[in-house]
Amino acid sequence: VHQQHCRTMDNPEDDQQSTTQPNSLYRSSTLGLTLAQSVEDLVEEDLLDPEISEHIMSTFDSVVAKTFDESIRARMTIEGELKTYRCLENSWELQVNNATAHLDGDVEYVPELLIFACKRNPASRQKRSKK
Asked: Residue 18: enclosing H or E segment and its boundaries?
């Protein structure tokens, strides 16, 4: 999934899948890849209907995005050498070399960092600020 996403960011004609939609970014995480593989295995063994498998993945997308939007309060700063950046449909991909990440007093060195970011839904920003 991650490689498909990068191809799409490089050249939208390569892959017309919805991998550039903000909510589907989390499918390339370890949890998303593991869930996708498990669901795919169940479909291949005829234990799960393909339509239900897509519903499972869509639910995963929305639940993870909502959880991050409502629950994550930490802020991180990153310093490093910006190697490449791309934007497609309000989704950003940044590659940072020799990065230093600062989070809550902890500092972590990362030789090669790949960041995916997307524009947040304005409605969720208003809802979050009312809390």
From this structure: none
